[in-house]
From TrEMBL:
NCBIfam families: tim. The active site is at 96 (electrophile), 167 (proton acceptor). Belongs to the triosephosphate isomerase family. The keyword Lipid metabolism does not apply. This is Triosephosphate isomerase. The gene is tpiA. GO terms for molecular function: triose-phosphate isomerase activity. It comes from the Bacteria. Its main location: cytoplasm.
Length: 250
């Protein structure tokens, strides 16, 4: 039996402005109280300093949406783990399907980003998930296992420090959610794989579900045995919805 707290992490993606961020965070801070779970917001890089100061001393942790696999140097446009640490970043999303799809991120790049996050004391939220075509071809298990295996291969027993997010690509931003049973089935596969790699630590590794999780469906998804929280896109931009998801994660 594990005592780990669930994690509800918002992924703002490329949304926000100074004014909108302030309004959203003020509403979240007014409503969040003492949450029964851990809470984070993963914000666009230009707003790290703003959000760091707005959430200081609150139960809301700061997260980034990506980081460089390199430590420093001639990598125009990238942000290093050490730079993120300078702004108090606690979590970094790694290998989001939008990064894999639009920026050609490979399993190996995701594994390297996971390693550099861990080396800098940032908890990587490692995303895995199948496309609709892969699901329909019966390849879901093969795909998510391959994606996670690359991370395990490079990070070894350190993977006990990661967070995994199962995000079926067909459910992201589409309004189509995996059913609790569909999600739990994949989470159980991932848990078994983690168990193989990290034995007794596997039960303590949080596996989040992401893909159109919202105020209406969060409670039933979060009730599943191996769903340890959520990675929330669209619904994290609306304070009442995000607060309801946080409340469902007890
Ligand atoms: C995401 O971007 O990680 C995500 C799950 O988005 P949405 O909740 O909008 O489907």
């Amino acid at each position: 039996m594990t005592t780990k707290k669930k994690l509800i992490a918002g992924n703002w993606k490329m949304n926000g402005s100074l004014a909108a961020n302030e309004a959203l965070l003020k509403a979240l801070l007014a409503g969040v109280g003492a949450p029964g779970c851990e809470v984070a917001v993963c914000v666009p890089a230009p707003y790290l300093a703003q959000v760091q100061s707005l959430v200081a001393g609150s139960p809301i942790a700061l997260g980034a949406q990506d980081l460089s696999a390199q430590a420093q140097g001639a990598f125009t446009g990238e942000q290093s783990a050490a730079m993120l640490k300078d702004f108090g970043v606690r979590y970094a999303i790694v290998g989001h399907s939008e990064r894999r799809q639009y920026h050609g991120e490979t399993d190996e790049a995701v594994a390297a980003k996971t390693a550099i996050a861990l080396a800098n004391g940032i908890t990587p939220i490692v995303c895995v998930g199948e496309t609709l075509a892969e699901r329909e071809a019966g390849r879901t298990e093969e795909v998510v296992k391959r994606q996670l295996a690359a991370v395990i291969h490079v990070n070894g027993h350190c993977i006990s420090e990661i967070v995994v997010a199962y995000e079926p690509v067909w459910a992201i931003g589409t309004g189509k959610t995996a059913t609790p049973a569909q999600a739990q089935a994949v989470h159980a596969v991932l848990r078994a794989q983690l168990h193989h790699a990290a034995s007794e630590h596997a039960a303590g590794i949080r596996i989040l579900y992401g893909g159109s999780m919202n105020a209406a469906n969060a409670a039933e998804l979060l009730a599943e045995a191996d769903i340890d929280g959520g990675l929330i896109g669209g619904a994290s931009l609306k304070a009442p919805d995000f607060l309801q998801i946080i409340a469902a994660a007890r």
